Protein backbone atom coordinates (compact mmCIF):
# COMPACT_ATOMS: atom_id res chain seq x y z
CA UNK A 1 0.00 0.00 0.00
CA UNK A 2 0.89 3.65 0.08
CA UNK A 3 -0.02 6.72 -1.93
CA UNK A 4 1.25 7.64 -5.39
CA UNK A 5 0.90 11.12 -6.83
CA UNK A 6 0.82 12.34 -10.42
CA UNK A 7 1.36 15.81 -11.84
CA UNK A 8 -1.14 16.23 -14.65
CA UNK A 9 -4.67 15.03 -15.10
CA UNK A 10 -4.93 13.88 -18.73
CA UNK A 11 -5.71 10.42 -20.02
CA UNK A 12 -2.18 9.16 -19.37
CA UNK A 13 -2.62 10.15 -15.73
CA UNK A 14 -6.01 8.46 -15.68
CA UNK A 15 -4.58 5.17 -16.92
CA UNK A 16 -1.72 5.47 -14.42
CA UNK A 17 -4.29 5.97 -11.64
CA UNK A 18 -6.21 2.89 -12.78
CA UNK A 19 -3.05 0.78 -12.72
CA UNK A 20 -1.96 2.15 -9.33
CA UNK A 21 -5.36 1.50 -7.80
CA UNK A 22 -5.43 -2.03 -9.20
CA UNK A 23 -2.11 -2.59 -7.40
CA UNK A 24 -3.56 -1.35 -4.11
CA UNK A 25 -2.28 2.23 -4.01
CA UNK A 26 -4.11 5.40 -3.11
CA UNK A 27 -3.67 8.10 -5.73
CA UNK A 28 -3.51 11.89 -5.74
CA UNK A 29 -3.72 14.00 -8.91
CA UNK A 30 -2.58 17.60 -9.21
CA UNK A 31 -4.33 19.36 -12.09
CA UNK A 32 -6.14 22.71 -12.42
CA UNK A 33 -8.98 21.27 -14.53
CA UNK A 34 -12.05 20.24 -12.46
CA UNK A 35 -13.04 17.60 -15.01
CA UNK A 36 -9.59 16.25 -15.89
CA UNK A 37 -9.72 12.53 -16.81
CA UNK A 38 -7.29 11.53 -14.04
CA UNK A 39 -8.85 13.83 -11.44
CA UNK A 40 -12.20 12.17 -12.06
CA UNK A 41 -10.97 8.70 -11.08
CA UNK A 42 -8.35 9.51 -8.44
CA UNK A 43 -8.84 9.17 -4.65
CA UNK A 44 -7.85 12.80 -4.30
CA UNK A 45 -7.72 15.65 -6.79
CA UNK A 46 -5.79 18.79 -5.88
CA UNK A 47 -7.15 21.46 -8.20
CA UNK A 48 -4.32 23.92 -8.69
CA UNK A 49 -1.66 25.05 -11.11
CA UNK A 50 1.46 22.90 -11.45
CA UNK A 51 3.53 25.77 -10.04
CA UNK A 52 1.29 26.52 -7.03
CA UNK A 53 3.69 26.25 -4.08
CA UNK A 54 1.10 25.31 -1.46
CA UNK A 55 -0.47 22.73 -3.78
CA UNK A 56 2.96 21.17 -4.29
CA UNK A 57 3.45 20.98 -0.52
CA UNK A 58 0.01 19.40 -0.17
CA UNK A 59 0.87 16.86 -2.89
CA UNK A 60 4.20 15.94 -1.35
CA UNK A 61 2.67 15.50 2.12
CA UNK A 62 -0.08 13.25 0.75
CA UNK A 63 2.21 11.01 -1.34
CA UNK A 64 5.03 8.51 -0.87
CA UNK A 65 6.31 9.08 -4.43
CA UNK A 66 5.34 11.31 -7.34
CA UNK A 67 5.35 10.96 -11.14
CA UNK A 68 4.23 13.07 -14.10
CA UNK A 69 2.02 12.34 -17.05
CA UNK A 70 2.98 15.15 -19.43
CA UNK A 71 6.36 16.52 -20.36
CA UNK A 72 5.66 20.21 -20.01
CA UNK A 73 5.44 20.14 -16.24
CA UNK A 74 7.67 22.94 -14.93
CA UNK A 75 11.11 21.60 -14.01
CA UNK A 76 11.05 23.86 -10.94
CA UNK A 77 7.99 22.01 -9.60
CA UNK A 78 9.69 18.64 -10.08
CA UNK A 79 12.80 19.91 -8.37
CA UNK A 80 10.79 21.27 -5.42
CA UNK A 81 9.00 17.93 -4.98
CA UNK A 82 12.24 15.97 -5.38
CA UNK A 83 13.67 17.69 -2.30
CA UNK A 84 11.14 15.94 -0.08
CA UNK A 85 9.89 12.87 -1.95
CA UNK A 86 11.10 10.42 -4.60
CA UNK A 87 10.16 11.86 -8.00
CA UNK A 88 10.31 9.84 -11.21
CA UNK A 89 11.18 10.61 -13.95
CA UNK A 90 14.10 12.84 -12.91
CA UNK A 91 13.81 16.57 -13.65
CA UNK A 92 16.92 16.47 -15.86
CA UNK A 93 15.37 13.94 -18.27
CA UNK A 94 12.11 15.87 -18.36
CA UNK A 95 13.88 19.13 -19.15
CA UNK A 96 15.84 17.51 -22.01
CA UNK A 97 12.59 16.12 -23.45
CA UNK A 98 11.01 19.59 -23.21
CA UNK A 99 13.45 21.03 -25.72
CA UNK A 100 13.95 19.50 -29.15
CA UNK A 101 17.44 20.96 -29.55
CA UNK A 102 18.60 19.59 -26.18
CA UNK A 103 16.98 16.27 -27.03
CA UNK A 104 18.85 15.94 -30.31
CA UNK A 105 22.15 16.91 -28.69
CA UNK A 106 21.48 14.32 -25.98
CA UNK A 107 20.74 11.58 -28.54
CA UNK A 108 23.82 12.37 -30.63
CA UNK A 109 26.06 12.64 -27.59
CA UNK A 110 25.12 9.07 -26.66
CA UNK A 111 25.67 7.71 -30.16
CA UNK A 112 22.04 7.62 -31.21
CA UNK A 113 21.65 9.19 -34.68
CA UNK A 114 18.94 11.80 -35.31
CA UNK A 115 17.87 13.95 -38.25
CA UNK A 116 20.36 16.64 -39.35
CA UNK A 117 19.17 19.92 -37.82
CA UNK A 118 19.98 23.53 -37.04
CA UNK A 119 18.82 25.67 -34.13
CA UNK A 120 16.90 28.75 -35.30
CA UNK A 121 16.86 31.17 -32.37
CA UNK A 122 17.80 34.44 -34.09
CA UNK A 123 17.70 36.15 -37.46
CA UNK A 124 21.43 35.54 -37.59
CA UNK A 125 21.06 31.79 -37.07
CA UNK A 126 18.35 31.76 -39.73
CA UNK A 127 20.58 33.52 -42.24
CA UNK A 128 23.42 31.06 -41.62
CA UNK A 129 21.41 27.90 -42.40
CA UNK A 130 23.02 25.99 -45.24
CA UNK A 131 21.22 24.41 -48.18
CA UNK A 132 21.48 20.77 -47.05
CA UNK A 133 18.55 20.90 -44.60
CA UNK A 134 15.97 21.51 -47.35
CA UNK A 135 13.29 20.37 -47.86
CA UNK A 136 12.90 20.56 -44.12
CA UNK A 137 10.48 20.91 -41.24
CA UNK A 138 10.67 23.86 -38.88
CA UNK A 139 9.55 22.83 -35.38
CA UNK A 140 9.19 24.91 -32.25
CA UNK A 141 11.79 23.73 -29.73
CA UNK A 142 9.21 23.66 -26.97
CA UNK A 143 5.55 22.76 -26.44
CA UNK A 144 4.82 21.06 -29.78
CA UNK A 145 2.74 17.89 -29.88
CA UNK A 146 0.53 16.06 -32.37
CA UNK A 147 2.34 17.88 -35.17
CA UNK A 148 1.40 21.31 -33.79
CA UNK A 149 4.10 23.96 -33.94
CA UNK A 150 5.51 22.59 -37.21
CA UNK A 151 5.77 24.09 -40.67
CA UNK A 152 7.07 22.44 -43.82
CA UNK A 153 9.82 24.45 -45.47
CA UNK A 154 10.55 23.54 -49.07
CA UNK A 155 13.40 25.98 -49.74
CA UNK A 156 15.65 28.33 -47.84
CA UNK A 157 13.67 31.24 -49.34
CA UNK A 158 10.60 30.06 -47.37
CA UNK A 159 12.37 29.82 -44.02
CA UNK A 160 11.90 33.39 -42.80
CA UNK A 161 8.15 33.26 -43.46
CA UNK A 162 7.88 29.89 -41.70
CA UNK A 163 9.72 31.22 -38.64
CA UNK A 164 7.42 34.24 -38.66
CA UNK A 165 4.43 31.91 -38.79
CA UNK A 166 5.68 30.17 -35.64
CA UNK A 167 6.05 33.50 -33.84
CA UNK A 168 9.87 33.61 -34.11
CA UNK A 169 10.19 31.49 -30.98
CA UNK A 170 13.19 29.15 -30.60
CA UNK A 171 12.93 26.46 -33.26
CA UNK A 172 14.85 23.63 -34.84
CA UNK A 173 14.95 23.14 -38.57
CA UNK A 174 15.12 19.45 -39.41
CA UNK A 175 15.90 17.86 -42.71
CA UNK A 176 12.82 16.02 -44.03
CA UNK A 177 13.91 12.39 -44.17
CA UNK A 178 12.67 9.69 -46.56
CA UNK A 179 10.75 7.44 -44.16
CA UNK A 180 10.05 3.78 -44.76
CA UNK A 181 8.02 3.62 -41.54
CA UNK A 182 7.93 4.88 -37.95
CA UNK A 183 8.30 2.91 -34.75
CA UNK A 184 8.70 3.49 -31.05
CA UNK A 185 9.71 1.56 -27.97
CA UNK A 186 8.75 1.78 -24.32
CA UNK A 187 11.44 1.07 -21.72
CA UNK A 188 11.10 1.09 -17.95
CA UNK A 189 14.04 1.62 -15.63
CA UNK A 190 13.99 1.24 -11.88
CA UNK A 191 15.99 3.11 -9.26
CA UNK A 192 18.32 0.09 -8.88
CA UNK A 193 19.22 0.36 -12.57
CA UNK A 194 17.35 -2.65 -13.88
CA UNK A 195 15.70 -2.04 -17.21
CA UNK A 196 12.98 -3.80 -19.21
CA UNK A 197 11.19 -3.00 -22.46
CA UNK A 198 7.99 -3.68 -24.33
CA UNK A 199 8.10 -5.04 -27.89
CA UNK A 200 8.83 -2.36 -30.50
CA UNK A 201 5.66 -0.93 -32.02
CA UNK A 202 5.06 0.28 -35.57
CA UNK A 203 3.19 3.58 -35.86
CA UNK A 204 1.06 5.28 -38.52
CA UNK A 205 0.31 9.00 -38.28
CA UNK A 206 -2.45 11.00 -39.95
CA UNK A 207 -1.99 14.80 -40.08
CA UNK A 208 0.90 14.56 -37.60
CA UNK A 209 -1.23 12.70 -35.04
CA UNK A 210 -0.71 9.06 -34.13
CA UNK A 211 -3.56 7.08 -35.71
CA UNK A 212 -2.59 3.40 -35.63
CA UNK A 213 -0.06 1.29 -33.73
CA UNK A 214 0.65 -2.27 -34.85
CA UNK A 215 2.54 -4.88 -32.87
CA UNK A 216 2.36 -7.96 -35.05
CA UNK A 217 4.85 -10.82 -35.43
CA UNK A 218 7.45 -9.96 -38.05
CA UNK A 219 6.13 -6.39 -38.27
CA UNK A 220 9.63 -5.03 -37.72
CA UNK A 221 12.88 -6.75 -38.74
CA UNK A 222 14.61 -8.20 -35.68
CA UNK A 223 17.84 -6.24 -36.19
CA UNK A 224 15.96 -2.92 -36.47
CA UNK A 225 13.92 -3.71 -33.35
CA UNK A 226 17.10 -4.62 -31.48
CA UNK A 227 18.76 -1.33 -32.48
CA UNK A 228 15.71 0.63 -31.30
CA UNK A 229 15.68 -1.16 -27.95
CA UNK A 230 19.43 -0.65 -27.47
CA UNK A 231 19.13 3.04 -28.32
CA UNK A 232 16.19 3.57 -25.93
CA UNK A 233 18.02 1.76 -23.11
CA UNK A 234 21.14 3.85 -23.74
CA UNK A 235 19.10 7.05 -23.59
CA UNK A 236 17.42 5.95 -20.35
CA UNK A 237 20.70 4.99 -18.67
CA UNK A 238 22.34 8.25 -19.74
CA UNK A 239 20.07 10.32 -17.49
CA UNK A 240 19.88 7.76 -14.66
CA UNK A 241 16.26 7.58 -15.73
CA UNK A 242 13.65 6.13 -13.41
CA UNK A 243 10.20 5.44 -14.81
CA UNK A 244 8.71 4.76 -18.22
CA UNK A 245 10.34 6.32 -21.28
CA UNK A 246 9.21 6.18 -24.89
CA UNK A 247 11.58 6.86 -27.77
CA UNK A 248 10.16 7.48 -31.27
CA UNK A 249 12.18 6.45 -34.31
CA UNK A 250 12.16 6.83 -38.07
CA UNK A 251 13.22 3.87 -40.18
CA UNK A 252 14.56 5.36 -43.38
CA UNK A 253 14.18 3.98 -46.88
CA UNK A 254 17.82 2.90 -46.78
CA UNK A 255 17.13 0.94 -43.57
CA UNK A 256 18.85 3.30 -41.15
CA UNK A 257 17.28 3.94 -37.77
CA UNK A 258 17.05 7.55 -36.62
CA UNK A 259 15.69 8.78 -33.28
CA UNK A 260 12.94 11.39 -33.57
CA UNK A 261 12.01 12.38 -30.03
CA UNK A 262 11.42 10.97 -26.58
CA UNK A 263 8.57 11.20 -24.10
CA UNK A 264 9.46 10.93 -20.38
CA UNK A 265 6.26 9.04 -19.59
CA UNK A 266 3.97 6.36 -20.99
CA UNK A 267 3.06 7.07 -24.60
CA UNK A 268 0.03 6.79 -26.85
CA UNK A 269 1.88 4.22 -28.97
CA UNK A 270 2.29 1.98 -25.88
CA UNK A 271 -1.42 1.66 -25.16
CA UNK A 272 -1.60 -1.76 -26.88
CA UNK A 273 0.26 -3.14 -23.85
CA UNK A 274 -2.92 -2.78 -21.76
CA UNK A 275 -4.58 -5.67 -23.59
CA UNK A 276 -1.75 -7.43 -25.42
CA UNK A 277 0.89 -7.79 -22.68
CA UNK A 278 0.98 -9.26 -19.19
CA UNK A 279 2.28 -5.91 -17.87
CA UNK A 280 1.08 -2.64 -19.38
CA UNK A 281 3.21 0.50 -19.67
CA UNK A 282 1.17 1.88 -16.76
CA UNK A 283 1.88 -1.19 -14.62
CA UNK A 284 5.56 -0.56 -15.35
CA UNK A 285 5.17 3.09 -14.33
CA UNK A 286 3.63 2.01 -11.02
CA UNK A 287 6.39 -0.53 -10.39
CA UNK A 288 9.22 1.91 -11.09
CA UNK A 289 7.62 4.61 -8.95
CA UNK A 290 6.80 2.32 -6.04
CA UNK A 291 10.17 0.58 -6.09
CA UNK A 292 8.64 -2.81 -6.95
CA UNK A 293 10.64 -5.41 -8.93
CA UNK A 294 10.72 -5.12 -12.71
CA UNK A 295 10.30 -8.26 -14.78
CA UNK A 296 10.35 -8.40 -18.58
CA UNK A 297 6.79 -7.90 -19.88
CA UNK A 298 5.50 -10.61 -22.20
CA UNK A 299 3.29 -9.87 -25.20
CA UNK A 300 0.71 -12.66 -25.27
CA UNK A 301 -1.32 -11.45 -28.27
CA UNK A 302 -0.63 -9.64 -31.51
CA UNK A 303 -2.36 -6.26 -31.39
CA UNK A 304 -3.45 -3.16 -33.25
CA UNK A 305 -4.37 0.09 -31.52
CA UNK A 306 -6.66 2.61 -33.19
CA UNK A 307 -6.82 6.13 -31.80
CA UNK A 308 -10.22 7.74 -31.33
CA UNK A 309 -10.08 11.46 -32.04
CA UNK A 310 -12.89 13.93 -31.39
CA UNK A 311 -13.60 14.08 -35.14
CA UNK A 312 -15.46 10.79 -34.75
CA UNK A 313 -18.10 12.54 -32.68
CA UNK A 314 -18.98 14.84 -35.60
CA UNK A 315 -20.84 13.89 -38.75
CA UNK A 316 -18.60 14.24 -41.85
CA UNK A 317 -20.78 17.07 -43.21
CA UNK A 318 -20.74 18.93 -39.88
CA UNK A 319 -17.55 20.97 -40.18
CA UNK A 320 -18.36 23.16 -37.20
CA UNK A 321 -19.14 20.20 -34.97
CA UNK A 322 -22.44 21.73 -33.95
CA UNK A 323 -24.26 18.45 -33.43
CA UNK A 324 -22.01 15.93 -31.68
CA UNK A 325 -23.08 12.31 -31.89
CA UNK A 326 -21.84 9.15 -30.21
CA UNK A 327 -20.01 6.61 -32.38
CA UNK A 328 -21.61 3.19 -32.73
CA UNK A 329 -19.75 1.42 -29.91
CA UNK A 330 -22.26 -1.45 -29.86
CA UNK A 331 -21.34 -2.50 -33.38
CA UNK A 332 -17.61 -2.71 -32.66
CA UNK A 333 -17.97 -4.26 -29.20
CA UNK A 334 -19.90 -7.09 -30.89
CA UNK A 335 -16.59 -8.16 -32.49
CA UNK A 336 -14.34 -10.54 -30.52
CA UNK A 337 -11.02 -9.11 -29.33
CA UNK A 338 -12.14 -5.46 -29.30
CA UNK A 339 -11.14 -3.51 -26.18
CA UNK A 340 -12.62 -0.02 -26.03
CA UNK A 341 -10.93 2.58 -23.80
CA UNK A 342 -12.65 5.95 -23.35
CA UNK A 343 -11.20 8.73 -21.23
CA UNK A 344 -14.46 10.30 -20.08
CA UNK A 345 -13.77 13.68 -21.73
CA UNK A 346 -17.07 15.52 -21.95
CA UNK A 347 -16.09 17.88 -24.77
CA UNK A 348 -15.24 16.36 -28.16
CA UNK A 349 -13.02 18.52 -30.34
CA UNK A 350 -11.47 17.77 -33.71
CA UNK A 351 -8.02 16.24 -33.19
CA UNK A 352 -8.61 15.74 -29.46
CA UNK A 353 -7.73 12.30 -28.12
CA UNK A 354 -10.97 10.88 -26.69
CA UNK A 355 -10.05 7.22 -26.39
CA UNK A 356 -8.50 4.26 -28.18
CA UNK A 357 -9.35 0.73 -29.20
CA UNK A 358 -7.02 -2.22 -28.76
CA UNK A 359 -7.71 -5.19 -30.98
CA UNK A 360 -6.20 -8.53 -30.04
CA UNK A 361 -6.55 -12.10 -31.31
CA UNK A 362 -4.55 -15.30 -31.39
CA UNK A 363 -3.44 -14.74 -35.01
CA UNK A 364 -2.18 -11.57 -36.68
CA UNK A 365 -4.51 -12.03 -39.67
CA UNK A 366 -7.49 -12.07 -37.33
CA UNK A 367 -6.24 -8.86 -35.66
CA UNK A 368 -5.90 -7.17 -39.04
CA UNK A 369 -9.34 -8.31 -40.21
CA UNK A 370 -11.06 -7.17 -37.04
CA UNK A 371 -9.17 -3.85 -37.01
CA UNK A 372 -10.22 -3.17 -40.61
CA UNK A 373 -13.81 -4.02 -39.74
CA UNK A 374 -13.68 -1.64 -36.76
CA UNK A 375 -12.17 1.11 -38.94
CA UNK A 376 -14.91 0.62 -41.53
CA UNK A 377 -17.69 0.78 -38.95
CA UNK A 378 -16.29 3.95 -37.41
CA UNK A 379 -15.34 5.57 -40.72
CA UNK A 380 -11.60 5.60 -39.94
CA UNK A 381 -9.00 5.10 -42.68
CA UNK A 382 -8.05 1.43 -42.91
CA UNK A 383 -4.66 2.00 -44.53
CA UNK A 384 -2.85 -0.52 -42.37
P1 LIG B 1 4.09 13.88 -30.79
O1 LIG B 1 2.61 14.09 -30.68
O2 LIG B 1 4.47 12.47 -31.15
O3 LIG B 1 4.88 14.44 -29.65
P2 LIG B 1 5.24 16.05 -32.32
O4 LIG B 1 4.26 17.14 -32.51
O5 LIG B 1 6.27 16.21 -31.25
O6 LIG B 1 4.48 14.67 -32.14
P3 LIG B 1 7.09 14.95 -34.29
O7 LIG B 1 7.06 13.61 -33.68
O8 LIG B 1 8.37 15.69 -34.28
O9 LIG B 1 5.92 15.90 -33.73
O10 LIG B 1 6.59 14.87 -35.78
C1 LIG B 1 5.28 14.41 -36.11
C2 LIG B 1 5.34 13.52 -37.33
O11 LIG B 1 5.79 14.27 -38.46
C3 LIG B 1 6.30 12.38 -37.21
O12 LIG B 1 5.75 11.29 -36.50
C4 LIG B 1 6.57 12.08 -38.68
O13 LIG B 1 5.48 11.39 -39.26
C5 LIG B 1 6.63 13.47 -39.28
N1 LIG B 1 8.02 13.99 -39.24
C6 LIG B 1 8.56 14.72 -38.23
N2 LIG B 1 9.86 15.02 -38.48
C7 LIG B 1 10.16 14.46 -39.66
C8 LIG B 1 11.35 14.44 -40.48
N3 LIG B 1 12.48 15.03 -40.08
N4 LIG B 1 11.28 13.78 -41.66
C9 LIG B 1 10.14 13.19 -42.07
N5 LIG B 1 9.00 13.18 -41.36
C10 LIG B 1 8.99 13.81 -40.16
MG1 LIG C 1 6.59 15.31 -29.50
MG1 LIG D 1 6.28 12.54 -32.20
TrEMBL record:
It is an enzyme of class 6 (ligase). One of its GO terms (biological process) is 'de novo' IMP biosynthetic process. Keywords: ATP-binding, Ligase, Nucleotide-binding, Purine biosynthesis. SUPFAM superfamilies: Glutathione synthetase ATP-binding domain-like, PreATP-grasp domain, Rudiment single hybrid motif. Pfam families: ATP-grasp, PurK_C, RS_preATP-grasp-like. The keyword DNA damage does not apply. It catalyses: 5-amino-1-(5-phospho-beta-D-ribosyl)imidazole + hydrogencarbonate + ATP = 5-carboxyamino-1-(5-phospho-D-ribosyl)imidazole + ADP + phosphate + 2 H(+). InterPro entries: ATP-grasp (IPR011761), ATP-grasp_carboxylate-amine (IPR003135), ATP_grasp_subdomain_1 (IPR013815), PreATP-grasp_dom_sf (IPR016185), PurK (IPR005875), PurK_C (IPR040686), PurT/PurK_preATP-grasp (IPR054350), Rudment_hybrid_motif (IPR011054). One of its GO terms (cellular component) is cytosol. Its EC number is 6.3.4.18. The keyword NADP does not apply. HAMAP family: PurK (MF_01928). Homodimer. Belongs to the PurK/PurT family. Catalyzes the ATP-dependent conversion of 5-aminoimidazole ribonucleotide (AIR) and HCO(3)- to N5-carboxyaminoimidazole ribonucleotide (N5-CAIR). Catalyzes the ATP-dependent conversion of 5-aminoimidazole ribonucleotide (AIR) and HCO(3)(-) to N5-carboxyaminoimidazole ribonucleotide (N5-CAIR). This is N5-carboxyaminoimidazole ribonucleotide synthase. It comes from Lampropedia hyalina DSM 16112.
Amino acid sequence: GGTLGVLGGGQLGQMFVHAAQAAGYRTVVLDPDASSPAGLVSHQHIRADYTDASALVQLSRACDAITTEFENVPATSLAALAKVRPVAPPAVAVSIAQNRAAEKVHFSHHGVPCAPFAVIDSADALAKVGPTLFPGILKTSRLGYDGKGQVSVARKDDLAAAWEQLGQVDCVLEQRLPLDFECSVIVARSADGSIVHLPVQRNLHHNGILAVTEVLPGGIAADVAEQAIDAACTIARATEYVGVLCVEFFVLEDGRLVANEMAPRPHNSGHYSQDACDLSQFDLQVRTLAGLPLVPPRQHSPAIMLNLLGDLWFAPDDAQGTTPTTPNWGAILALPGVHLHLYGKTQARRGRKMGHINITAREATQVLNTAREVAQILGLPADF
